[in-house]
Structure formats: structure tokens, C-alpha cells
Amino acid sequence: MPDRAPQPVDRQLPTEESRELMALVRDIAQREIAPRAAEEEEAGHFPREVFSLLSEAGLLGLPYDSAHGGGDQPYEVYLQVLEELAAARLTVGLGASVHTLACHGLAGFGTKEQRTEHLPAMLAGGLLGGYCLSEPASGSDAASLRTKAVRDGDDWVITGTKAWITHGGIADFYTVMARTGVEGPRGITAFLVPGDAEGLTAAAPEKKMGMKGSPTAQLHFDGVRVPDARRVGDEGQGFTIALSALDGGRLGIAACAVGVAQAALDAAVAYAGERRQFGRPIADFQGLRFMLADMATQIEAGRSLYLAAARLRDAGRPFSRQAAMAKLFCTDAAMRVTTDAVQVLGGYGYTADFPAERYMREAKVLQIVEGTNQIQRIVIARHLAGPESR
């Protein structure tokens, strides 16, 4: 791979503190994450030590209240941190996004006592979280989940199976959605479940085409007993909590997608400047120059779209439609950009000696997780034209 270092993204950050924060993130990404990314992904190694470092640096609780160990950062800053981490290694960027998603329920809907007891360790105490909504037969149709929580005195007993859980089997805690009442969205409640709870086991991690270093596994709840003090929000409020978390989570996926696309563009530009054919660098050929220009334009458009949605969120305004648009556009753009990066590198792009093929494999999953892009189109259309006729 050419040694030419990519130029840092020219970011418009709101404060001097956020600029210093981004410099710290870039340093960690270039020094601790990127150099080992390819080797560790190929080996399927999860970099728990990197997440410990991020926690120590205060980077796993950025959008949350500093009173509980968070960073008091607006979403527009937090998402750009995710982008930088994902550009270095998607396993890390997406892992940080999922951890933030797992903390959302307690931070936004928990009682004062719950936040005081649990959030400091979750946000800055070295813990790692997982988010449990999907099930083997309940993916896009999340409101049809079957995992049950039955009241038993001051406890709840959870039984069922969750699927496609990032950090499944290694997380220290999970935010779990379970059915406590009627069918449909109104019968779902959220719980904070310790990762070492008795009766909680993980299946073998899925064998994936990309993100091999990030474990994705089914979780089996065999009579897992959880105190009512770990119920998050009111009974029946779980689906509302889940959707609220996913709005922010989709922006996290969008930012990660832009990070992967940016890494692919950087690799393509570096290669095109050094690879010579017909006596000159291939970057001199108009067809390839236009490809690079299109790639850069899609990345810039995606970054602008997710930041516009983040600023709505930071201002306390509705942003669900914009979050769906950002997730849709940024992940589709990442798929196109990474595919084009492989093409720019030609035969070398198809080999594991260069990172382009890894970026392409990783980009694919971003079109699927936290609501497929077909679901995002449904969400956007409902905002425009109302619900479908029955």
C-alpha cells in the first residue's frame, strides 16, 4: 500500500474543546487502531483493549451528561468522532455507536437513582454495552418480538432469544426489549441486564463476510431474573425507548459509513497517484479522475446530511425523517464508493494485501443494520405521505 498519509478531513467544529477532542481522536486512531486493523480483522480479534482506552479517554460517553461520566458533547461532534474511528476500523467505530445506543435508554428514560447508580460505570468506567431488540423471527418487524418478561414478586424473569447482537457474549450489560403485556408495540418493556446474569448465554458468533473482529451472536435468556429496579422506563414504554434510541443510532451508522467511504477514497487517491501505466500516473487519466471526483462528492454530501440531522437533534427539534435519510444515503454512498475504490486499484483491489476489499465488505453491512435501507425508505415515505392504507 502506498505510504502517502491521507489529509485530515477539514471539519467545522463548534468549539476549541471539540477541536482538541478531534485531535485526540485522530491521534488514537492513527497510533492505536489503524496500524493493526487489517491483521486483527483477518484474525477475528476483538480489540477490547482499544475500547478500554476509549473509555479512559472519555470517548465512550460523549453525548451524555458529564454529571454521570459523559462528555457533554453535541451530537454533531460525537458523530464526527465516530466517523474518525470508523475510518480507522469499522469494528471500533460501530462498536462505539452500539455502546452509545445501549446507554440511551437509561440515560433518557431511567430514574434519577438508576442513572446515579449505573451510568458512571457505563459511560466512563470501562464497561461495554449491547443492544437487544432483534430476534430470529423479528427483525424489521421489531414490534412482533417474542422474548417475554414475566413479573415474579420484585423481579422479572426473561425468557427468549435475541439475534444479531453486536458484542453478543462479551458485553458487560445489555439493554433488552421484552414483551410484558399485549401483542404489538404497547406490550414491550425495556430492561438493563448484566452481561453475567445467570441463565444468559451466547451462541457462537456469526461467521460474517466483513467486520470479523466484531462479534455478532444470538443471546439466549433462560429464565434470567432481573430486579424491577433494572426496568428502564414504564411498563409498556419499551418500544418507544427502542425507536428513540434507533433515531440516534441511525445517525451513528451514517457517520460510520462516511468514515469507511473516506478511508476507501484516501486509499484510492494514494494508489492512483503512485501507480503508473503508459508512462504516467493513472490519476492523470480523465476516466479515473472523474471516478475520484464522484466518490469525494458523495462523501461530502453524506457528511453534510448526517451533520444537518445532528444539528436538529442538538436543537431539540424532530429529526427522525432526517436520520432515516442520512442512514439511507450515507450507507448507499459507502457501498458505491468502496466498490469504486476496488475498481481504481484494479487487480490489487481484489486482494487482501490492500484495504479496499475490506472496506467494500464492511460497507455492505451498514445498509442492513439498525433498520435496512428499505425500512428507511418506508420511514421517509410515511413522513411525506402518511401511513399506508390498510
Distance between the termini: 55 Å
Separate helix tally:
10
Pick out the low-confidence regions: none
Provide the gyration radius in Å: 21 Å
Number of strands: 10
Query: How would the global form be characterised?
Result: globular
Structural class comes to alpha+beta
Please write the string of helix (H) and strand (E) elements: HHHHHEEEEEEEEHEEHHHH
Strand line-up across the major sheet:
1-4-5-8
Explain what you see.
By secondary structure, the chain is of the alpha+beta class. Helices cover 51% and strands 14% of the residues. Strands 1-4-5-8 form a four-stranded mixed β-sheet. A four-stranded antiparallel β-sheet has the order 2-3-7-6, with no helix packed on it. A two-stranded antiparallel ribbon has the order 9-10. Helix 3 packs across helix 6, helix 4 runs antiparallel to helix 6 and helix 8 packs antiparallel against helix 9. The termini are far apart. The mean pLDDT is 96.
